[in-house]
Each structure stands twice: as C-alpha cells, then as structure tokens.
Write a structure and sequence with these properties.
InterPro entries: HD/PDEase_dom, HD_GYP_dom, PilZ_domain. The chain is of the alpha+beta class and 563 residues long. It has 16 helices and 22 strands. Helix 8 packs antiparallel against helix 9 and helix 12 runs parallel beside helix 13.
C-alpha cells in the first residue's frame, strides 16, 4: 500500500484487490459514478470478477446510462468495506448487453483501488460562499416541529448545523431527530441523528449544534462519502492558496443563478421592506465572514468584491430606501449592523456625481468590514460595561487584527482601506488610535469616515450607555472641533437633516412613526406608523405619504431606539 493525497491509501496488491471487490458482490454493495460534472452515485450490482481482465456489473436499475457507457464514458465504482470507503480508478465498459430483461456491463478490471479510513474527528468544512440548507424535524410536546438551519461541516459520522435559538426546546426533548440536507443543485439527503453538543451565540441568536448520525444504511454511507468529498473539492477552491484550476462541484451550482437558497436559517427571517430583505443578503455575508475570521481565515476577496457590488447597486437604485433598511436589521450581530450603517451613510454622503465607481465600491467594501476586527478580541470585552487602561489597550488592537487578514484583497484600494478601516478611529488632536495621527496626517476621506462612524455608533445602544438622540449627537460633534472636522460634521447634518431617514419620531398629535423618506426641505414625506418603541418590523402600521405633518402634527421629538 502507498499513501495518496486527499487521505486515500492506494491498494495495489492483486490479492487485496480481489478480497475487497469480493465484499462488493452483494446487493447494495456498490455504486457507479460517471466521469462527468454533476454526477451522483447510482446503485449497481457487481456480479463477478475475472482478474486481471474484467468485471461484470448488473446495471438494470440505471439502464438510462447505457448510451453513455457505450460511447466510452468513464466511471468509478464506489463502496464500503469494513468501515472504509473504497473506489476504483476510472474504468470503461468493454461490452453492454441485455439478457433476459437484465442489463449487464462487462468492464475493465481495476489495477488498483483507493481506500479511505473513516475517521471520527474528520469533518469537511463549508467555506464562505458555500451554502447548504438543513431541515430539522422532531417532536416537541405532542406536536411535530420543523426548524431550518445551515450545514457548517459534514463527516461520515455526523454534522454540525447552525440553527435559530428557538430550536433549543426541540433539541432538549428529542433523543433523535431527522435531518434533511438541501444542496444548491437540488440534491437532498435525509438521515436520523442524535444531538450531542450545542453552543449558544446570544448576539447572533443562534445555536451551533453537533449531531451524530444514527443507524446509517450502506447506501447512506456511500452518499455521505460522496457529499464529504464534494465539499472538500469545492472548499479547495476557496482557501489561502485556492485551486483555481479545479472545476466547481455541481452540488453547489444553484438551479437558478444568483438566487438565495430556499432552505436555511435566514430563509425564515422577516424584514419590513423589500429593500431590507435584499440588504439582509449582504448582512448574511458579513455575518459569515465574521465567523470565518474567528476561525482563523482571511477576508475573502471574491466575496467582499461581490457583496460590495451588491451594496453599491442597492444604493444606486434607491438610497433612501437603503438608508431606512439599515435600521431594519435588528436580528443581525451589532458589528454587522454597524458596518452596513456606516457603509450606506458614507455612500450617501459621498454622492455619485464626482466620485468614480471603483472608489465608491472600495468605500463600501472598506466600511462594511471596518469593525469586524472587534470580533477577534477576547470574548466579553466589547460587552463590558466599563473599560480600564488594560481594556482600552486591548480594544485598540482590533484595527491591526483586521488589517492582518486583508492581504488577499489586492483589488481593494490601499488608500481607501487605510482611510476607512484604520484612520476612522483617529482624531484631529492626535487622541485617536491606532497611531495617534494628528490633523495634518489625516486625509479628507479619513475625516469623513470618523464623523460617519461615530454618528452611527452613538445612535446604537452600548453596554455602558443607551443610544443617543440624533440632535444630541450633532451637538456633541459640533462642540468637539478639536477631534472631528467641523466641515464634515456640517456636511453630514446638511445631507441627512435633523430628523434623518430611519428616525423614530413622535408627532404632536400623539402618533409615532418611522421616517422613510424626506422631501427637499428635509420634512417627512413618507412615514410608517407604529405603536412600538422597537426596531421596524413587518407588523408596523399604515404608511403615510405627502404632507405628513398636516395629518399628524409637527414632529415633537425623536424616540431613541437602538437598531
């Protein structure tokens, strides 16, 4: 035997080959996999072997492949023997004929086999951009319950799913559940499994749950082996040194190009506007990218570029609808909400008339991810209610932690990246971080970034204080010219107004409503009524358009709500 790549061991001894093939000469013992993209294992019967000349297969169950075999298409045989998955090299049919209603194929005899030992600890991990939905079915109380989630890794023995936190009750009561994996190309796989361990993420409102498969049949084992290999194959195209020459796995080719997966944890999330639902796709990317960073990976250049294009397209379509959508992402992690809030407001402030598109794209990309480095800090630091000198030192490290993971994003303008990711935390008087740069060393983009970043941050709840009202934020910045460039503060106020889109306001008539659009004078032109001092939801009230204040009275005050 000799060790091959991809965890296979090559078996070349004729006697060993014969022994292993003997194990496949039984119903359900083998599958056939055609050498073409998108093939899936198909059931065949190995009838007899005639070493070293040929083998005889019964392919009655898959007679539709007869034409391809006769035309010389290659194939492999797959099987399981004593807990090991085995496969042949590519073989070809020597003769195909029908006898007494059965279809038989005489084929090459394999000169070697490859076997892979099942390993309990080995799991094929899905990388950023690889999405497989999962449906979890079980019994809760006296009724059947269905929960949707996402596959994170897969092995011969089990898998790890990310589920909504609402699945906790089902998992606590069920000894066994049914898991159905739903691949983008439409392939489905169902298996019984027992939950073994779970980790809750309160910020993301999720559970990461490990499952052990239960009583898998030989056919299920073969399919699992195929899925694990295809996930590995696709994953190899996404790593630090991607195998760009490798063809993509057909399992991950969506049936409708560009469509969101129809099954998954996010599929059941609700958003109050169509634009918010579209923005949620970008939020989903940022959420996944944050997890990739926490697992030691770099920022993915392809996915960052793709979603920066997506965000830019949304901004060009309807910037006011997008501004409101940034206030509708209450189910997302705070670093994701903040990144998108900063990105959209920077695009709105920069405008489109004189800024080249590639610069706006770099601006959107840099702003989206600018704070993700905080997710790499020690657990609990961001949630701390107070910071001492040591905590402040730790906090400032988030900038360098992210920059170290940006090396593969060579398409991204270094100047824009530095101004938005690094210099947004600097202040004109040198009191900022990470380098304490003073005013003469800060570009116009860095000065703008600092203003947009701090406005968005102050309008959100933090562990040590509640969200600020926008008028209080403006006063603070205008009283701090030594830290924030007054020109950019005034431009911000002029662009977004005293009651910006996305503000929850109370009118003199007593009604409350979310401002969704402003007229040219900065007055509310579109407002959606609500009775709740909570982030926007699908259940909000009537949408009013036109001269809103004549119907509701003048705006009395903003109601601060952290979104």
């Amino acid at each position: 035997m000799e060790q091959q790549g991809d965890e296979f061991i090559r078996v070349g001894s004729p006697s060993e080959i014969e022994v292993l093939l003997d194990q496949l000469i039984q119903p359900g013992g083998a599958s056939l996999l055609l050498d073409r993209p998108g093939s899936a294992p198909m059931p065949v019967v190995v009838m007899e072997q005639a070493p070293p000349a040929s083998m005889l297969l019964d392919i009655t169950a898959v007679r539709e492949i007869v034409g391809e075999l006769k035309r010389g298409m290659g194939f492999r045989l797959l099987g399981q023997v004593h807990g090991k998955m085995i496969r042949t090299p590519s073989l070809k049919a020597l003769q195909v004929e029908a006898l007494q209603g059965r279809v038989q194929c005489q084929c090459d005899y394999p000169h070697y086999l490859e076997e892979m030992q099942r390993r309990e600890a080995y799991r094929a991990r899905l990388r950023l951009g690889m999405e497989v939905g999962a449906i979890l079915r079980g019994t809760e109380g006296e009724g059947d319950v269905t929960v949707q989630g996402d596959l994170k890794d897969l092995s011969q023995q089990g898998c790890q799913l990310e589920l909504p936190s609402s699945a906790a009750t089902l998992l606590a009561e069920a000894a066994l559940v049914e898991i159905e994996l739903c691949f983008p190309n439409g392939s489905r796989f169902t298996v019984q499994a027992a939950p073994r361990h779970k980790v809750a993420d309160s910020d993301r409102q999720t559970l990461r749950v490990g499952f052990q498969f239960h009583a898998c049949s030989a056919e299920q084992e073969r399919k699992l082996w195929f899925f694990v290999r295809e996930i590995e194959r696709e994953s190899s195209r996404y790593g630090d040194e991607p195998d760009v020459g490798r063809l993509p796995s057909m399992l991950f080719q969506s049936q409708s190009s560009g469509a969101s997966p129809s099954v998954g944890r996010r599929n059941l999330m609700s958003y109050p506007t169509p634009m918010a639902r579209r923005l949620a796709r970008v939020a989903g990317y940022l959420d996944a990218q944050l997890l990739e960073l926490q697992q030691g990976d770099d920022v993915d250049p392809v996915q960052l570029s793709r979603h920066a294009d997506m965000l830019l397209q949304l901004a060009e379509e309807d910037i006011e609808a997008l501004l409101f959508a940034t206030r509708c992402l209450g189910q997302e992690p705070v670093l994701v909400r903040h990144g998108l809030g900063v990105a959209v407001h920077m695009l709105a402030l920069a405008g489109t008339s004189s800024v080249p598109r590639d610069v706006r794209k770099a601006l959107a990309a840099s702003a989206m991810i600018h704070d993700l480095g905080k997710g790499l800090l020690p657990s609990g630091l961001i949630a701390a209610g107070s910071f001492g000198p040591d905590e402040h030192i730790q906090l400032k490290q988030h900038v360098d932690l992210l920059v170290q993971r940006m090396g593969r994003c060579q398409w991204l303008s270094e100047k824009v990246l530095h101004a938005v990711v690094v210099s947004a935390n600097e202040r004109l008087d040198g009191s900022g971080y990470p380098a304490g740069v003073m005013s003469e060393g800060l570009s116009e983009l860095a000065r703008m970034s600092a203003v947009v970043d701090v406005v968005d941050a102050m309008r959100r709840n933090r562990a040590d204080r509640p969200a600020w009202r926008i008028d209080a934020v403006y006063r603070h910045l205008l009283k701090s010219p030594q830290q924030f460039d007054p020109r950019w503060v005034k431009r911000y106020v002029q662009r977004f107004g005293l009651r910006p889109v996305g503000s929850l306001v109370r009118f003199s008539g007593g009604a409350m409503g979310w401002i969704q659009r402003l007229d040219q004078q900065g007055k509310p032109f579109q407002v959606q009524l609500t009775d709740e001092m909570a982030p926007p939801e699908e259940t909000m009230g009537e949408v009013l358009r036109g001269d809103v204040e004549s119907r509701l009275g003048g705006m009395v005050e903003e109601v601060p709500v952290s979104t």
